[in-house]
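Sequence, please.
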């Protein structure tokens, strides 16, 4: 007879969460073992708990595969963006952006300019990955030429990229969040603007101040040397930017992102063949193998020797392991148990906001961007209904806890991609994700002050009417 399945109790839930944290610390920090193996080991930790509470291995394998399936769209996007990065570098698109950026942008305003450029690119395209892999790489090269610390430049780039990922109606995470929260897409975006608007302005000012602090020491001779190296190894001209204009225009007209990005990669192949001296077969192969040059300028080689589908395979393997963790935790009820405990604590708008942000962050810890949106909206959605808080607040807080925390986790899809694409580790750029942190801070302030918190019914009857029964917290 098959054992009866049950939710994990508090001790078992803590065992999974604390065990996960210890494995990550020991593998990554103490023993310098691959993060892939750390996540794989976590699978077995969760499987042990699942067997104890009545789940068969086959039950849990289905959950694991479902978790991986939930993130396959991100995998396809990564493969497409990898091909795009490689051919846009080889085709002169990214080098031309770098060259003209060095010629136009002043060092003092560079950080704010990088933030704004990546904001505009991500809003127009709806993809943080595509924005970071193209405009972001260009900004990294320009910042290095001006003598800025690369983690700071990466912070400005990623902050800008996640403005669009969070706000653009073309962004898959924006559409997905509105759908899961059962909110109209435009209403969702309007609600987010209450938070993102002030966060964007404050972040822009901070990057401007930081730019004046570091920009005075900008090494313009290095910038001149970089421009000369780019001219030597690439044909630089305005028409090198045509593939970027075409791709942005197609995405702006709401064409599907994956085929558009792949079409952009093919345009890069054509440009490498027509204008950069590569044979067609060499240019075509760059979509898979990535770009390779030896300019003699170390950071140029570091930034431009990348891209291709191969460039993303290690990232994709890591994401699959992370998605598996999320699928297993969903299957055995760890996430539901966490949701029950949060429900007993979240009895006002402030705590409900914090619980949603926490649930989103946990989703990134145990899966990635798509998992985080599911956990944040599903785990805490009933709390908003119970407290008669409009679901526009749920959708807004889901993005604050899910979307913007994605690049903060070293093994999430966003964290892995940003570190790989920009050549800066997650923990190095983390302190400079000013827009992302401001979104979280402002969301929590709004929750505790009831600012822009909309209710579906008068508040005076909510507290008495919607008391939650405390779940079983025994340690047996």
């Amino acid at each position: 007879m098959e054992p009866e399945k049950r939710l994990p109790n508090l001790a078992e839930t803590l065992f999974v969460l604390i065990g996960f944290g210890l494995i990550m610390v020991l593998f990554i920090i103490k023993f310098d073992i691959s993060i892939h193996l750390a996540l794989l080991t976590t699978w077995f930790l969760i499987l042990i708990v699942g067997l104890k509470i009545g789940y068969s291995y086959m039950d849990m394998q289905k959950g694991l595969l479902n978790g991986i399936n939930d993130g396959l769209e991100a995998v396809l996007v990564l493969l497409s963006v990898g091909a795009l990065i490689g051919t846009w570098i080889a085709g002169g698109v990214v080098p031309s952006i770098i060259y003209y950026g060095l010629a136009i942008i002043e060092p003092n305003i560079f950080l704010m300019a990088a933030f704004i450029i990546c904001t505009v690119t991500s809003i127009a395209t709806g993809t943080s990955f595509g924005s970071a892999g193209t405009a972001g790489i260009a900004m990294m090269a320009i910042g290095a030429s001006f003598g800025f610390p690369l983690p700071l430049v990466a912070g400005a780039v990623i902050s800008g990229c996640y403005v669009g990922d969070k706000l653009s109606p073309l962004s898959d995470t924006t559409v997905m969040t509105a759908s899961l929260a059962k909110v109209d897409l435009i209403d969702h975006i309007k609600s987010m603007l209450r938070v993102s608007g002030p966060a964007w302005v404050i972040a822009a000012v901070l990057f401007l101040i930081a730019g004046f602090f570091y920009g005075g020491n900008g090494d313009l001779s290095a910038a001149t040397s970089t421009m000369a190296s780019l001219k030597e190894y690439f044909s630089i001209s305005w028409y090198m930017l045509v593939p970027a204009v075409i791709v942005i225009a197609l995405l702006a007209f709401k064409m599907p992102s994956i085929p558009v990005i792949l079409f952009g990669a093919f345009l890069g192949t054509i440009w490498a063949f027509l204008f950069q001296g590569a044979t067609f077969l060499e240019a075509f192969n760059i979509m898979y193998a990535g770009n390779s040059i030896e300019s003699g300028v170390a950071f140029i080689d570091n930034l431009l020797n990348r891209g291709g589908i191969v460039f993303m395979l290690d990232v994709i393997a890591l994401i699959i392991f992370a998605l598996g963790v999320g699928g297993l935790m969903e299957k055995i009820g760890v996430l539901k148990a966490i949701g029950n405990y949060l429900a007993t604590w979240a009895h006002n708008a402030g705590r409900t906001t914090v619980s949603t942000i926490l649930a989103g962050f946990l989703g990134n810890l145990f899966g990635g961007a798509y998992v985080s949106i599911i956990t944040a909206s599903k785990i805490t959605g009933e709390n908003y209904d119970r407290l008669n808080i409009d679901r526009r607040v749920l959708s807004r807080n889901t993005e604050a806890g899910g979307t913007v925390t994605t690049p903060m986790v070293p093994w999430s899809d966003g964290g892995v991609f940003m570190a790989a694409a920009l050549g800066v580790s997650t923990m190095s750029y983390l302190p400079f994700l000013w827009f992302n942190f401001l979104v979280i801070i402002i969301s929590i302030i709004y929750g505790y002050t009831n600012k822009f918190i909309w209710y579906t019914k008068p508040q005076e009857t909510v507290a008495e009417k919607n008391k939650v029964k405390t779940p079983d917290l025994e340690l047996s």
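The first helix runs from residue 10 to 30.
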